[in-house]
Amino acid sequence: MRDTPRVVAVVAAAVAQIVGSPLGSAIAGRSVGDVSDADRSLVTPAGWAFSIWGLIFAGSLAWAVYQALPAQREREVHRRTGWPLAITFAGNAVWEVVFPLGGAWQYVATLLIFGITAAAAVAYVRLQTVPADGLARLLPRATAGLLLGWLTVASVAAVGSAGVALGLSPDTLAAQAWAVAALVTVAGIAAAVLLGSHVAAGPFAAAVIWGLLGIAAAEGSQQVAVAAISAAAVVLVALAGRALTRTDRSALLVG
């Protein structure tokens, strides 16, 4: 019985984050994409980059269903990661409803995304020391890695959009300098995470690189595009370097 609340929370939150986007659009009369396009900053990824949410949602739901199976409920990997990932999923659902409302709610959503990222980070850290096999190994690691990787980039994008919403022009030298500094920070954080990872580094790196390439392809400043590509290269080198020092490379790269 001790596992039932966690199991139910994970399933409910995984479903909620899928329903959240259309619900938010229905309430606000516009989508997340509409608001993002209206407040596009130099670190807003190209539209196609957001398609990664489809993979994240699918992985989240698959893991939620799997951990709910009777034979899986008491496994340590699910007990250690269930609550932080449930909080991440639920936070995503709330963000999807709040962000399209715009106005002051957009700033609330910006703060919220940092809380969501923190919850995903807790799950990722806990996965580093929990043994698992089969789908219990792959699903939570892939889900947490993709989530944390994408949210690392999305947090910077959210701050940039909030700045534009406040009236800060993305066409100034100051905006370009901030964008480059933000991308350097993302590269540094991602490299540090990768170099300290024992598992799930592959999904994390893939999501970060995907987001950075999305920023580079967004037809913004050339300097920012170069910085984004350079940041992606740093992340790739960090992943390769960590993999070369690991005997069990499949755990690091695949999950």
Reconstruct the topology from this structure:
Layout: H1 4-28, H2 32-38, H3 52-67, H4 76-98, H5 104-127, H6 135-165, H7 173-195, H8 201-216, H9 222-244, H10 249-253
Summarize the structure in words.
The chain has 255 residues and is mainly α. The chain has one domain (4-253). 76% of the residues lie in helices and 0% in strands. It has helices at residues 4-28, 32-38, 52-67, 76-98, 104-127, 135-165, 173-195, 201-216, 222-244, 249-253. Helix 4 (76-98) runs parallel beside helix 6 (135-165). The protein is flat and about 55 Å long. The model has no long low-confidence stretch (mean pLDDT 91).
The poorly predicted ranges are none
| Rounded mean pLDDT score | 91
Number of separate structural domains = 1
Task: Kindly state the number of beta strands.
Answer: 0
Count the DSSP helices.
10
Structural class by helix and strand composition: mainly alpha
Helix content: over 70%
* Overall 3D shape: flat
Sketch the topology as an H/E string, one letter per element.
Answer: HHHHHHHHHH
Distance between the termini: 29 Å
Cα radius of gyration in angstroms: 18 Å
Please outline the major beta sheet: none
Bin the strand percentage. Answer: under 5%
